[in-house]
Amino acid sequence: MIGVGVIGYGYWGPNLVRNFVEAPGSQVLAVCDLRPERLALARSRYPAIETTTDYREVLADGRIDAIAIATPVSTHFDLAMQALRSGRHVLVEKPLTATSEQAARLIEEAAARRRVLMVDHTFVYTGAVRKIRELVAGHELGDIYYYDSVRVNLGLFQHDVSVIWDLAVHDISIMDYVLPSRPLAVSATGMSHVPGEPENIAYLTLFFDGRLIAHIHVNWLAPVKVRRTLIGGSRKMIVYDDLEPSEKVKVYDKGITVNKDDAESVYEMLIGYRTGDMWAPQLDMTEALRVEAAHFIRCVERGERPVSDGEAGLRVVRILEAATQSMAERGRLVEVTVG
Amino acid sequence: MIGVGVIGYGYWGPNLVRNFVEAPGSQVLAVCDLRPERLALARSRYPAIETTTDYREVLADGRIDAIAIATPVSTHFDLAMQALRSGRHVLVEKPLTATSEQAARLIEEAAARRRVLMVDHTFVYTGAVRKIRELVAGHELGDIYYYDSVRVNLGLFQHDVSVIWDLAVHDISIMDYVLPSRPLAVSATGMSHVPGEPENIAYLTLFFDGRLIAHIHVNWLAPVKVRRTLIGGSRKMIVYDDLEPSEKVKVYDKGITVNKDDAESVYEMLIGYRTGDMWAPQLDMTEALRVEAAHFIRCVERGERPVSDGEAGLRVVRILEAATQSMAERGRLVEVTVG
Amino acid sequence: MIGVGVIGYGYWGPNLVRNFVEAPGSQVLAVCDLRPERLALARSRYPAIETTTDYREVLADGRIDAIAIATPVSTHFDLAMQALRSGRHVLVEKPLTATSEQAARLIEEAAARRRVLMVDHTFVYTGAVRKIRELVAGHELGDIYYYDSVRVNLGLFQHDVSVIWDLAVHDISIMDYVLPSRPLAVSATGMSHVPGEPENIAYLTLFFDGRLIAHIHVNWLAPVKVRRTLIGGSRKMIVYDDLEPSEKVKVYDKGITVNKDDAESVYEMLIGYRTGDMWAPQLDMTEALRVEAAHFIRCVERGERPVSDGEAGLRVVRILEAATQSMAERGRLVEVTVG
Amino acid sequence: MIGVGVIGYGYWGPNLVRNFVEAPGSQVLAVCDLRPERLALARSRYPAIETTTDYREVLADGRIDAIAIATPVSTHFDLAMQALRSGRHVLVEKPLTATSEQAARLIEEAAARRRVLMVDHTFVYTGAVRKIRELVAGHELGDIYYYDSVRVNLGLFQHDVSVIWDLAVHDISIMDYVLPSRPLAVSATGMSHVPGEPENIAYLTLFFDGRLIAHIHVNWLAPVKVRRTLIGGSRKMIVYDDLEPSEKVKVYDKGITVNKDDAESVYEMLIGYRTGDMWAPQLDMTEALRVEAAHFIRCVERGERPVSDGEAGLRVVRILEAATQSMAERGRLVEVTVG
After folding, report:
1. Largest distance between two CA atoms of chain B
2. CB nearest to B245's CB, from C45, C48, C225
3. Which of the residues A262, B5, B165, C98 could staple to B161 if both were Cys, CB 3.0 to 4.6 A apart?
4. Inter-chain CB proximity D280 and B277 less than 8 Å
5. Is the pLDDT of residue C206 over 60?
């Protein structure tokens, strides 16, 4: 039985606690938050769990094997580093850290101490995204032409990071999981509509080797909620709408065929259009965090490397950094550092 | 009764012919197309209309007062210039010309000859877009924060122009009509997925004076058809979905309120969220081209300046040029020339 | 080349004219309507077609081989009978006649004179309905459990027939085409909301042999347009939404499994739930009336029996009669006469 | 602080427990269920709550003031009667009882003992249904013409009651709450597709005094989930879609106008069509059961009569009984008993 401590009981922390409480193989022993009213809420739900406003009490608790961190991004590095140094396995809410340099240092520390370092890229544990990865890897779509995602709603404005670090991080981590190659450069634009605050709307174009292009639209100030991704391939295309109660992933047997042989000039080049069936595969509807919690426990128990390991967290942070820099320079192409 | 000649009877020409046939005040006398089978189709529908493969016969027909041009973009300038020089009023399919220099010369010619020069920015004649303009102009939305449009489908690939000139031109002309200010610079990205062909997917960010930002996503290779625009304002927000059979324009009484006075630091700044009613105003559902044809006839009869005049056409072409240049340089910010 | 005359140029007549004009193998020679302004409209569109307010002129026109009738229901029988007696092939808008006795007499007359009698059950010529018939006939759905259709909108109130004869006739004709058996009895309810006028809302339940049940909801006074049919089977289920621009027919691999063997009592009977993939087959999107016009011409040319022949028209009218009687008696079960 | 005991911890019981745990003014002291594994689940979530498989232990617990019952329908009467006789206030899951005679006896007992008897008609505590009641009562819709509801999905088949008692009960209780008058007679049809089991699909037409008509379609064996109600009025019409994440209630300024004065005969009677704005009022999105739990506690504390009192429960059961009888006789009109 893995003893778990959770630091941060704001928006996401309660979901972590609930899933580690219900997961076979783990028990939640302590919850930490700076706000006493959040701790009171935790106690009302789980009278047996200890609560504290001082994270050092969690680190000092010898029964705890693993620590889950769900605090503001700026605190991820310090908390995770202390947890690793105290010999604990660590699960960190996305994004892993505020800088790629911090992420690299966590990876080193975890490796040196042989501890599990996992980042909470929740979507890669959904049935929908796992199915998409399976379809892409199985060449069901053919060559991937584009990945286009819209993730907008009237959302909680954050004060310390732009909407890229809050919302686009989801899309970047999904792409990191499902696409066959990795972005080399990014052009990003955005705007803040509240003076003095970070950008609340942003657009990212990511360039890959070859003809693959990706785009992400994120917005905290939209009148409606949209979670929709289009993935175009040479053989088939996908619409992934996370708000659909069922049929979240639709596969369209649609596309073009190009016939250059018959053409004497480019103006005669024949582009044909294929329109076939649509198919919505059945998806595993298990809550993603339930799958993820079980995966984390298993990795801790067996010393295995998680799907969303520190390296995945680092790759995502590098893209966030490049996008942030490009956005500050109104779309200037910025290369993504490769480790 | 205005005599009308139509050059080009491909995809759009039949709509022009049908509307000028049915409009009170005009009659269609001649149709020109290079393809005999298209002319045969025109004759089967309208036995009384003369048809020809030679546009000079249209120019030579003394009964014709006005010429509507629905041919490939590259031919717009020559045909429109000859028509103006022959003393005809001219309606040109969007985009007005292939270059801004051509557009400027048409404007000059029309002014010198006191002829109507109108560009077929169809959407500005729809009930939906006219209602949006009315709401924006009446300060119903407050300050405009962003304009975001998606216009994608599995569409006819064009060989001579990129998807920007084919699809984004609609959004740019709508913005030109409804927004209170005009874009100063553009950052665009895109990709061609057919070697040797122009870009079939593109993303444009337009920067304005102040905090207004606009974005357009166009794609000829999408599995589903989307025609959706989000307009964010400080007071209200709009979702304009052109594929909705009714309620195309929805006005959301939603947004944020910022209260800086109470805050000692930025971290305490209060951002409040408003969520009120949604309202879908009744729209005039008259076919846009019907409204537009009547407007053109009226302008010809009275010597008035059309809503979508040559200047509007020129402004749109200047943005298309800047976007094309930016796209070639993978997002580099390019300023939009101002006349 | 089959010469066609069309009687009735109101709502539906123009569609008939357009399709017989464009169909290879037929030409429209005359159009008749009592209203001169409708004839003026026909002439403006088709200057070569003769127009008249007297249907007897159409009957007297020796060039005419076939007559299409698109007039109020109460006139169908007289016009169709005169056309048959004059030796013409006849296509009658749905429903075939106002009574089953009239339908039977038309069938006799057509048989005696060896003329084609066809009823315009438009939907059975759509790609969607043809695909559904194919799936049902191929036992793709297993045993059919139910057929449930909703067909409502804010529609044109008719003065002479209830909404059953105007809208439910579509569903009844589709069922007649796709279901493996025919209704034996009907229970119908409805209401008129305009004093003195026929019912504008109605609900029909149709009973078949065995466990198949069908239901139709029709309404002229609905705030939104709905055209949605659910078909439940023991193996799969269909959602047919005619308003979807694409994917009109969705096939769900869903259902229940019943295992009685393991159960000692009914309370232990195991009902299992299956949820599998969804699949939307590609459909022929040709306009139904185009397919239907070609089919009518072919039947006339070759002396073949149409899919929607007089017998189909008679079966549908018998159900309409039974439903009307049941509705007048607030749901009393009325048996459907079998020929 | 009201002490609450909950009998039944299957599908609905956990929701009752959670809401009475979180409601200020109540605490849950005991949970009863026949299945030990359900009680184990309750204890893992709420270690402080006592659990038992014997409901008499709950009745014997002197700290308990009120008992919530979420067991199969057939047991409602016995459990509720014993709870009332032991002096407890009682909240019973819908439907109140299996027969109207049972409901009447519970009402008597509660009155005699001055205890609160409330039935869990959950939907009348939703923001959507409360808004609809407000619009109807405020004559916003004018005269109500019809109420039409569809409530279908692939649902849990029940062995002891038909789908009418499981799903239609929701619609009947909503109608009881929002409509200005009560049904006088019902015609119902339905079918069982599992031999020996109750009907899994049913259609109910309810007749009222005057021109109001209501219809309910319920189905446990549908491929998709639908929760949609149309309410037609002489002035406006409502679409209430409970599956919409927001804008659940849409009010359409649509309808007909009848002008008989100008008409010489019924055939000339003018029916005009109005199509105006659509409006979606902001709704209170509080969880219904949270509102309901607070309402129950308040009624207990102050001795007030709940909105969904025993009389409401009785009225609903009387309609369920009439519908069941009508369904057994394939649509025969059955009058609803009035108390």
Report:
1. 78
2. C225
3. B165
4. yes
5. yes
For C302, the 3-state DSSP assignment is helix
Q: Which domain holds residue D77?
A: 2-122+288-308
Say if strands B26-32 and B2-7 run parallel, antiparallel, or are unpaired.
Answer: parallel
Q: Which of residues 181-240 of A touch C (CB under 8 A)?
A: none
Q: Are B65 and B88 in contact (CB under 8 A)?
A: yes
Residue A56 φ/ψ, nearest 5 degrees: -65, -25
* Residue closest to B202 by CA, chosen among B184, B215, B183, B212: B215
CA distance to partner chain D, nearest, from residue A224 (Å): 9
Residues D130 and D117 in one domain: no
Q: How many CB atoms lie within 10 A of CB B15?
A: 18
Helix (H) or strand (E) holding D271: strand D270-280
Determine the Cα–Cα distance for residues B170 and B217; give it in Å rounded to an integer: 12
Cα–Cα distance measured from residue D111 to residue D105, given in angstroms and rounded to the nearest whole number: 10
Question: What CATH number is attached to the domain comprising C57?
Answer: 3.40.50.720
At D43-95, the pLDDT tens digits run 887 878 999 999 999 999 999 999 999 999 999 999 999 999 999 999 999 99
What amino acid is encoded at A85 in this protein? R
Query: In terms of Cα–Cα distance, which of D63, A50, B47, D221 is closest to C145?
Result: D221
CA distance A258 to C90: 47
Interface predicted TM-score (ipTM) of this complex, two decimals = 0.94
Helices (H), D93-213: 100-113, 127-137, 163, 169-178
Judge: A185–B330 Cβ closer than 8 Å, yes or no.
Answer: yes
| Nearest-by-Cβ selection for C282 from A246, A277, A280 | A277
Neighbours of D155 (CB within 10 A): 18
Domain count, chain A: 2
CA separation for the pair B221, A270 (Å, rounded): 15
B247 touches chain D (CB under 8 A): yes
d(CA D70, CA D64): 17
Q: Which two tokens stand for residue A18?
A: 């609930």
Q: Quick check: helix, strand or coil at residue A190?
A: strand
pLDDT along chain B (339 residues), means of 10: 96 95 92 95 85 97 98 96 98 97 98 98 98 98 97 90 97 97 97 94 97 98 97 97 94 87 57 90 95 98 97 98 98 90
Rounded-to-integer distance, Cα B128 and Cα C249, Å: 30
Q: Same structural domain for residues C191 and C295?
A: no
Is there a contact between B245 and C245 if contact means CB atoms under 8 Å apart? Answer: no
Measure the CA–CA gap between A10 and D14, rounded to whole angstroms.
24
Say what the pLDDT of residue B45 is.
78
D85 and D167 within one domain: no
For residues C253 and C128, membership in a common domain is answered with: yes
Residues 41-80 of C with CB under 8 A from B: 44-45, 47-48
User: Do B109 and B243 reside in the same domain of the chain?
Assistant: no
pLDDT of residue A262: 57
- Shortest distance, CA D234 to any CA of chain B (angstroms): 19
- In chain B, the residue whose alpha carbon lies closest to the alpha carbon of A277 is B223
Provide the 8-state DSSP code for D183: -
Q: What is the CATH number of the domain that holds D218?
A: 3.30.360.10
- Tokens 């009714």 found at: B246
Q: Residue C235 falls within a domain, yes or no?
A: yes
- For residues D132-153, b (16+ Cβ closer than 10 Å) or e, as one string? bbebbeeeebeebbbbbbbbbb
Domain assignment present for residue A215? The answer is: yes
Let me know whether B301 and B331 are in one domain. Answer: no
CA D313 to chain centre: 9
SS3 A174: helix
Chain B environment of D281 (Cβ under 8 Å): 277
* Same-domain status, B162 and B268: yes
DSSP string, C248-290: -EEEEEEEEEEE-TT-SSGGG-EEEEEEEEEEE-----S-HHH
